[in-house]
Amino acid sequence: MHSVWKTSIRFTLITAVLLGLGYPLLMTGLARVLFPHQASGSLIILPNGQVIGSELIAQSFTSDRYFHPRPSAAGSGYDAENSGGSNLAQSNRTLVTRIQGDIDKLAARNHGKPVPIDMVTTSGSGLDPDITPDNADYQVPRVARARGLSDDAVRKLVAEHTTGRQLGFLGEPRVNVLELNLALDQLPK
Amino acid sequence: MSANGWLQFAIFCLVLLATVRPVGIYLARVLEGERTWLDPVLRPVERLLYKLCGVSAGKEMNWREYAFAALGFSAVSLVLTYALERMQGWVAGWVNPQHLPAVRPDLAWNTAASFTTNTNWQSYTPETTMSYLTQMAGLATHNFWSAALGICVAVALIRGIRRTASGTIGNFWVDMTRTLFYVLLPACVIYGLLLVWQGVPQNFHAYTQAHTLEGQTQAIAQGPVASQETIKMLGTNGGGFFNANSAHPFENPTPLTNFFQILSIFIIPAGLTYTLGRMTGSPGHGWAVLVAMFVLFAAGFTVCYWAESQPHPLIHGAVQMRTAAAPGGNMEGKETRFGIADSALFATVTTDASCGAVNSMHDSFTPLGGMVPLANIMLGEVVFGGVGAGMYGILIFVILAVFIAGLMVGRTPEYLGKKIESYDVKMAMLYALIFPLAILTFSAVFVLLPNVGLASLANQGPHGFTEILYAFTSGAGNNGSAFAGLNANTWWYNVCLGWDMLIGRFLMMIPVLALAGSLAQKKSIPPSPGTFPVNSPLFAVLLVGVIVIVGALTFFPALSLGPVLEHLLLHAGKLF
């Protein structure tokens, strides 16, 4: 029985070093060489070195000139150190009041047009970088008006930034909000 | 529900089926000590490890020695993780660039118990609580260890079934070492690179400070994510690097990584059914068990997918039905890239197995959609199940099914040539009873204590009851997923959930090993015309029946007070 404890302690320590330090360090080395952009978080960096954000992480947009991501329950909103969902139940009055309130506000500004449901629901991570193409389409007139562009020009840009299902069948079609907004800023006036 | 959703389900099933045989054969070769293609590299490492640890690889153990080694090792590793958490503030530099301080004692205890038991229940927010060192050496290593331990126990039980008149069931240290280094580690290296390619970070940087397009600042948490993500899924552990787990775009950036993740939850448990058939010399039995698992899996997915596709009955003015470019349905707590189908599939798979990773927030599921993950755990996580734990779990139900079949025809039950006698059925029943006893007792106590139990609720009404029930079910089932609105990071929840998880793991593992020892000692008797064949469709039907009846009889009253009642009230217009 004495030997069980001795073996347990040695086995734990040795495998902890191999699997807990050796393995992640090996992976970090391989990842840095093979996929440096992804390994460091898919960051979008301006030529002057300023980090705008990550392609994969939603950031807050409130101006009419930009497309808005889905509402966020991460921290006080889009907090990339505090990911998470609202965890509100379908039977929770707070959730229904929040969603219905947001729908009514949007509908009032859009001649009562029905609102795509992903526009008024928080995502699981609070950092969902994407919106559905329906959601983007709903926002086109607002963005076009704020920028003095035609709806069609903006709609064309949305179409260019719409990602289909991966391999043709996996997941759902989506639009990356940050990439779309960066492209908007680069449109000629 | 959409055709494309069902197509994804069908393709997932086909790919999984295609892996069963090769994975099963490889596992059998590794655990029978046969040669593998990794031998030239790993054999010397393996021998060196035995020498350093004082293991006599040729010496077999009886079930008591095996159980003692498993428990001793788990105790030591639990203490190591507790110590790492408590001391993480002492270390700075690249393994703790955020200078995170020591973890509170009750939380450190809960987390150490959680990762030792393959549960990976997380009372904490990882980004702001655990240093890179704690995540890697404390938590990710447990993902390896606890997964390997489950496989060891499953294989010990399979050996018990196969061997005749034998006093031993294998060597624990050899089984651990070979599972860790021949199966889990190589798979993780390849899988990890796939994840990084798709966008999962792997670095030791301090959190990135971004200046957003609208001129705000955003701190973006990163770290050695990919190396932990792999074993989190493959070992059916489920403890996320981030709070949002596999819903976080850094853990699960694309639909393709999502596909890999659900596949990697099931791949080893599904392969083990083939290992069972191969090692017991009865391939048909392995397939029959697999068929029973598939029936329960498909049923769970169907209910969950249907429920989550339904519109909210009290919300008006929104497009809640599926369109050409949006999934509709219940999108609260779900990610755009996964939509409804992939979220329902992930939730079903993660609770069929004892994984507990989530790519959508179960707390915000519809009442019936959220009942599916809960019911899956309550059935004992035997639908593929946790790595190893699912296999020995379903073998317990197989023993019960054979026993019931024996009672029906009035013969002494036999299982693959072994007489199932009173001691064996007692061990099987111990396993089957400890689980609901822990869940229902803890839930009942916490529901009755307003300051201790109810103060942590995020939602009221029947859903609040479900939050507590889900927590203790997830703990005892070693799942780790949650109705995460419940604030479980309090002294009472941390301590009691810690015990709940340890009971659900180790008190259930001991009867399994005792059963293995008992079966190994028995002589084999040749099949007679009265023997109930365990490779027939009839057996698969009986097995499904036993699993569902045991689960339903035990938990239906609790489920009807929680999700069923919530569904009825919600559709009658009642909110809380």
Low-confidence stretches of chain A: none
Radius of gyration of chain B in whole Å, from Cα?
23 Å
The domain tally of chain A reads: 2
Helix content of chain B: 55-70%
Total beta strand runs of chain B: 5
Note the overall shape of chain A: extended
**Estimated share of beta-strand residues of chain B:** under 5%
Secondary-structure element pattern of chain A, one letter each: HHEEHEEHHEEH
Mean pLDDT of chain B: 94
Name the largest protein-protein interface in this structure. Answer: A-B, 110 and 126 residues
Largest sheet of chain B: 2 strands, antiparallel
Order of helices and strands of chain B: HHHHHHHEEHHHEHHHEEHHHH
* Largest sheet, spatial ordering of strands of chain A: 4-6-5
Biggest pleated-sheet summary of chain A: 3 strands, antiparallel
Percent helix among the residues of chain A? 40-55%
Count of individual beta strands of chain A: 6
Count of helical regions of chain A: 6
Terminal-residue CA separation of chain A: 80 Å
Protein model, in words:
The complex is a heterodimer of chains A (189) and B (576). The model of chain A has no long low-confidence stretch (mean pLDDT 95). With 189 residues, chain A is mainly alpha-helical. In chain A, helix 4 crosses helix 5. Chain A folds into two domains: 2-36; 43-186, no CATH class. The longest helix of chain A has 33 residues, at 2-34. Chain A has helices spanning 2-34, 36-39, 93-109, 133-147, 151-160, 177-186, and strands at residues 43-45, 51-54, 115-116, 130-131, 162-163, 174-176. Chain B has a domain at 389-571. In chain B, helix 3 (63-87) runs antiparallel to helix 4 and helix 10 runs parallel beside helix 17. A two-stranded antiparallel sheet of chain B has the order 1-2. A two-stranded antiparallel sheet of chain B has the order 4-5. Chain B has helices at residues 3-31, 39-53, 63-87, 105-116, 126-129, 132-162, 172-198, 225-234, 255-279, 283-309, 339-352, 367-378, 389-409, 422-447, 462-476, 491-521, 537-571, and strands at 208-211, 217-220, 318-319, 414-415, 418-419. Chain B has 17 helices and five strands. Chain B has 576 residues and is mostly helical. In chain B, a hairpin with a 2-residue loop joins strand 4 and strand 5. At the A-B interface, helix 1, strand 2, helix 3, strand 3 and strand 4 of A face helix 1, helix 2, helix 3, helix 6 and helix 7 of B.
